[in-house]
Write a structure and sequence with these properties.
Elements (H helix, E strand, L loop, with lengths): L4 E2 L3 H6 L3 E5 L2 E6 L3 H10 L1 E5 L4 E6 L23 E7 L5 E11 L2 E6 L4 H10 L5 E4 L4 E7 L3 H5 L5 H4 L6 E6 L2 E6 L8 E7 L3 H9 L4 E3 L2 H10 L33 H10 L4 E7 L10 E4 L2 E12 L4 E8 L9 E6 L2 E7 L13
Parallel strand pairs: 1-3, 4-14
Antiparallel strand pairs: 2-3, 4-10, 5-8, 5-9, 6-7, 7-8, 10-13, 11-12, 12-13, 15-18, 15-20, 16-17, 16-19, 17-18, 19-20
Helix pairs in contact: 2-7
């Protein structure tokens, strides 16, 4: 039996009668009241997520001379202090070891936030690519809460200073809450106005309870989080991204800077030169049926790809999904069939995001 890691909020989740399940090596809440209800809370009011399972690494040193600049597909040196940037850690073949965000804390300091399931390997890979500087795994002592939804700013204003509450998208600030230092970032994974709050793990329970004492805020589990991210077309590592998929195939080349050095660059350039054989493609189902991971994508009676993410979208009232198909088929309007055993769904390629009415930029 796998020994699951516990976030500081594990007892809180159980007190709230959450449905718990393993995720990325952690015992995590899937739902409390229900996935659809929690989804609605985030789209209409505010939802609070326990994200303490994510990995955080602290780098200190010269960004360029000590090698961090060459580790990711984007320029760390080019991130202004107080800003963050999304991108990838790649293998030699151009496959995605992880997708992550780097926060530029100071001229000589950065925080790297990675996925839970890949955190141990990420740290080893990044460390192996650094000729200098200091890399520290601060996951255990770092807590992380995500407050997301159109009312998130109003709720946050009860406990945080105006600078933290009025941040522009992908900007963060150091602040104080509950007598300790914290970092508040205007980022998230839901397509709604939201904030990610990093603070000492020992203070997470207290802040969790304070935020949930506000009637506008409901706890939300990973089930609703997955549905929320899919509606806005965000990729999920382990489903839509992995070490066999490149950023070019995933349609995420906008997060790759070919003007700088990084491991995997040459492989991506070769792939560009010879052309892609598959491409990430979003699709809508013509009914309320839910496509699921590993369902077959077919056209003219022949399998052409596989579904990597799928669900029923409450906002669109139909099934939606993401899969990989030959580039010639990844054109909006292309008809498809989604098949599994005796189930067949009519579908059509569309563009992202599926849902465009979120409060993300508010």
């Amino acid at each position: 039996m796998e020994q699951l890691q516990l976030t500081p909020l594990n007892a809180e989740h159980r007190r709230l009668n959450a449905l718990m399940a393993p995720f990325g090596g952690w015992d995590m809440p899937i739902q409390y009241e229900g996935i659809i209800a929690e989804h609605r809370s985030c789209r209409e009011r505010a939802a609070l997520f326990d994200i303490c399972h994510m990995g955080e690494f602290l780098f200190e040193g010269d960004i360029v001379a000590d090698g961090l600049e060459d580790v990711f597909t984007f320029s760390v040196a080019g991130i202004p202090v107080g800003r963050s940037r999304y991108g990838f850690l790649l293998n030699e073949r151009g496959g995605i070891i992880d997708d992550l965000i780097v926060f530029r804390l100071a001229a000589d300091k950065a925080m790297i936030v990675v996925n839970a399931a890949t955190a141990h390997n990420d740290f080893a890979v990044i460390q192996s690519r650094l000729p200098g500087g200091r890399l520290e795994n601060i996951t255990t002592e770092t807590g992380k809460l995500d407050l997301q939804g159109p009312l998130a700013r109003e709720v946050l204003a009860r406990f945080f200073d105006p600078e933290a509450c009025n941040l522009p998208y992908f900007k963060f600030t150091a602040t104080t809450v509950l007598g300790v230092e914290a970092l508040v970032s205007r980022t998230g994974y839901t397509g709604e106005l939201g904030f990610e709050i990093f603070l000492p793990a020992g203070k997470v329970v207290e802040l969790w309870q304070l935020l949930l004492a506000d009637d506008r805020v409901k706890p939300a589990g990973l089930g609703s989080r997955d549905l929320l991210r899919l509606e806005v077309g965000y990729s999920l590592y382990g489903s839509d991204l992995n070490e066999e998929i490149t950023p070019l195939e995933a349609g995420l080349q906008g997060f790759v800077n070919f003007d700088k050095s990084f491991i995997g660059r040459e492989a991506l350039l070769r792939q560009q030169g010879r052309g892609l054989t598959r491409l990430k493609a979003p699709f809508r189902v013509s009914s309320r049926r839910s496509p699921r991971h590993d369902y077959t994508i077919a056209t003219d009676g022949h399998p052409v790809g596989v579904v990597t993410s799928g669900a029923f979208s409450p906002m669109l009232g139909c099934g939606i999904g993401i899969g990989f198909v030959p580039p010639a088929l990844a054109v909006p309007g292309t008809p498809l069939k989604i098949c599994h055993d005796k189930v067949t769904m009519e579908a059509e390629i569309c563009s992202l995001p599926f849902y465009r009415g979120g409060s993300l930029r508010n």
